[in-house]
Design goal:
Blueprint lengths: L2 H4 L2 H9 L2 E6 L10 H9 L2 E4 L16 E4 L2 E2 L2 E2 L3 H13 L3 E6 L9 H10 L4 E4 L4 H8 L13 E5 L13 H4 L4 E5 L5 H10 L7 E6 L7 E6 L3 H8 L5 E5 L6 H4 L27 H7 L1
Parallel strand pairs: 1-6, 1-7, 2-3, 2-6, 8-9
Antiparallel strand pairs: 4-5, 9-12, 10-11, 10-12
Helix pairs in contact: 4-5
Length: 293
């Protein structure tokens, strides 16, 4: 089913004279957790710019003639800088392409989707945000951990581990977080000891239940449950690797009774390694260079 078969009349009018960008949330890792609208946009796209934290099977949903551009990031290596991704989106849409920017989880939850939308808006180009199932909610659910639970946790916070440590301009309020029933940490494995120390120093009980869940929703899902104080040691002992979601709060203890997910062979895992495909940067794309001068 193509874009013209399911998009709104406004979308079809835009497509008739220009390209468009679709900022699509791919979901938490399992390919079949993408939304219907996200899947349809992916199947109709001329170009797919994708991250590494997506279900690898999703790439098979792209058209055979679609360009697949890898833009994955690791803490120590960015295939494309964010500024290059923004520029690539703008140039492709200006060239009349239907472009899907496929991002793990939800594009507006620590996905820099807002930055990409701002770049497109500043260029006066059409775009649509297709929300995705965030790993902050789905990964705990696949480990039997509801982030809220009546009489246990009536609120939760989602934070990035990149704000931990000695970052001078950090906006993380550890005192406030220590009082929120459930704290979900994304991208926190490299700073887990610092995060634990900061929460305990702010008043969180050291014996608070906690869990780390790696490769959540995929067949590679693994987890370790412990107390907050013991979590860094437990993660190291169990060899839990990134990407992982960390949940701190009484709800983490529900994992012991609600751990329901059994790998079923339906999710091969995430796009972890940089594929050998072109272009790896906008300037190396002969077609794009030709079309944009």
């Amino acid at each position: 089913m193509g874009i013209g078969d399911w998009a709104t009349a406004s979308d079809r009018k835009q497509k008739s004279y220009s390209g468009k960008a679709w900022l699509v949330g791919a979901g938490p890792g399992r390919a079949d957790l993408i939304t219907v609208r996200g899947l349809r946009a992916l199947q109709a796209a001329d170009v797919v710019i994708y991250d590494r934290l997506i279900g690898v099977e999703l790439l098979d949903e792209a058209r055979p003639d679609a360009e697949l551009i890898f833009a994955g990031k690791r803490p120590d290596h960015h295939t494309l800088r964010q500024e290059e991704i923004n520029r690539l989106l703008v140039e492709l849409v200006r060239a009349g392409q239907q472009v899907v920017r496929l991002k793990g989880g939800d594009p507006f939850v620590f996905g820099r989707g807002g930055e990409e939308a701002l770049a497109l808006a500043a260029a006066g180009l059409p775009f649509e945000v297709v929300p995705g199932v965030s790993s902050a909610l789905a990964v705990p659910a696949y480990a039997g951990v509801p982030v809220t639970q009546r009489n246990v946790a009536t609120s939760f916070a989602v934070i990035t581990g990149h704000e931990a440590g000695d970052k001078a301009d950090s906006q993380t309020d550890w005192d406030a977080l220590s009082r929120i029933p459930t704290v979900v940490v994304l991208m926190g494995m490299g700073q887990i000891a610092t995060i634990v120390q900061a929460l305990i120093a702010a008043g969180r009980e050291a014996q608070t239940p906690a869990i780390a869940i790696s490769q959540g929703t995929t067949d590679q899902q693994r987890s370790v449950r412990s107390t907050l104080a013991e979590l860094p040691t437990a993660i190291e002992s169990a060899q839990i690797d990134s990407p992982a979601v960390i949940v701190i709060g009484e709800v983490a203890a529900l994992h012991d009774r609600l751990d329901w997910f059994v790998p079923d062979g339906a999710s091969a895992g995430l796009v972890e390694d940089e594929p050998i495909v072109w272009p790896v940067a906008w300037s190396s794309n002969p077609r794009l260079v030709q079309e944009t001068g």
